[in-house]
Every structure is written in structure tokens, then in C-alpha cells.
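Sample log: Surface protein.
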Amino acid sequence: MLTGALLILAPLFLGFALALENRHLMTAIHYGVEGLVYFILALLGLSLGQMEGVGGQLANMASQVAVLVVVLFGANMVGLWLFHRWQPMAAREDQVDQPRGYRRLFLAGLKPLVAVVVGGLAGFYWLPDLPMAEDVATWSLMLLLFLIGLQLRNAGLSLRRLLLNRQGLGIALAMAGSSLLAGFAMVPLLDAAWHESLALASGFGWYSLSGIVIGDALGPAWGGVAFLNDVIREIIALAIIPLLIGQRPAMAIGYGGATAMDFTLPVIRSSGGLDCVPVAIASGFILSFLSPILMAVFLSMGG
């Protein structure tokens, strides 16, 4: 059950309101965020491992993940293609780095899965039932959002300049709008309430957030579905960015969702050139703010 969906937004905005100048503190915050992400994902795995009848639910979860990934991919590609046709943007070939392997990035993209699997195995085979795990996960998420708010505020980015980046803002809105339309379309396919489907569609690739927020509200099975959908988005983005960004940068940048400002940014930079970087940062930043707001609003509609 959801424990105050809208409450999770408070630490995010509180962190964003605080300006810091100590570089050592910001470095500590960076490592704190990284550690909290894997801790929260391990707790998500623990909840899945200790879920009653988990074996019987795996097939159903797999079909729900498949629906989310396929429908969102199609909707996002159409929405972003339409935006590209309206506001075309071209990557500059003279700024593109030489092609290189992305094995390291793909392996890094699999780390969240490892954290969830380890937590799931521990919960299923070794650990006793931990009734406080859900509360610990919720408070850990709130701390994570506070630290992320600090990072966003102190990343040297001007909110005004990000919002005035027409390409980045347009890509973010096309991505969000097409995802929400897909959320409505998936209601009968997911056998979920409309507000639950919209919440699932609002992760935008932020797997550590969507997994625990959805899991807290709808149970560990749906939390696992949300996590897998968003981590698969990240992995697909790593594969398609080099293929699309030369001719359709909006589609390549937009599909990365919230990760365009961090995890997938090196691939965007090396494949699309420097001109794509501010667009990707603006789009990823806006989606990173929209994601928790939209999920909290939609989930709060469930009572």
C-alpha cells in the first residue's frame, strides 16, 4: 500500500532548494547516491524473493514487462519521430568520435539486475521474513531523492537555461506525452487500473525510483515489473543511440529518457557530437523531475 505518494516529492524539492559549494561533500553525495541505489534495488529483490507464490507469478510478470517494453517503445518512437519532423535536428559528423565498443556500458547496465537478483535469492533461500524491509526501502528512497535533488541543484546547470532549450524541452514533452498515451492504451493489456498503468508508464528509465515507488504502492510483483521495464529501456537505448542519432537525434536522445543526462550521455556525446549534449542534459533533467511527480500523482489517485 502506498504510504503517502505525494510525500516522496518533498525531499526531492528540499534537496533542490539547497545550494552547496563543498566539492568533497558533493563527491560523498555522489557515492552515497550510488550505494543507496543498489541497496534499494537489493531490497526490491528481497521483497520479490519473499513474495508468496513468486514462482507462479514469474510468467505473468514476464508478459507484463513485455507489454510495457514493446508498447512504450512503439509509442515513444512515433512520438519522437513526429517531434523530429516538426523540429528537425541534425548531428554534426565532424564532432562525432570514432566508433568504439560499448561493452563496458552494457555491463554497467546489467549491474542493477544483479543487485535485484542477489536480493531475490537472499530473500527466497536464506533470509527470514523481514517486516521492516518495506519501511526501510521507503525511507531509503526518500533519502535518495533528497541527495538527487542536491545533485541536480549543484550540477552547475541553470534551470532557466534547461527549460529554454527548445529541443530538449520538446523531446522531453514528446517522450512524456507518448508514454502517457501508451499508458492509457495498455490498461486492458496489463489488467490494471488506468492510474496504475499511467504510473508504470511514467518511469522514463529511472529504474531505482520506479521499482521501489511502484512496489511500495502496488506490491513487489508490480515493483519488479516497473524495474525491469525501465532497466530494459536503458539497455535498449545503449544499443539504438549509435544507430539513430546521426539521422534522428530526437529519437535517440528521447528514448533514453531520464538517463540521457547521465548514464547514456557518453554514448550520445560520442555518437552525436557536442551539439547533442545540452539537448540530452535538458531532456534528461526535465524527465527526471517529471517522473517522480507523475508517479506520485497517479498512484495517489488509488486512495
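Observation: The chain has a mean pLDDT of 82.
Observation: The chain has 14 helices and no strands.
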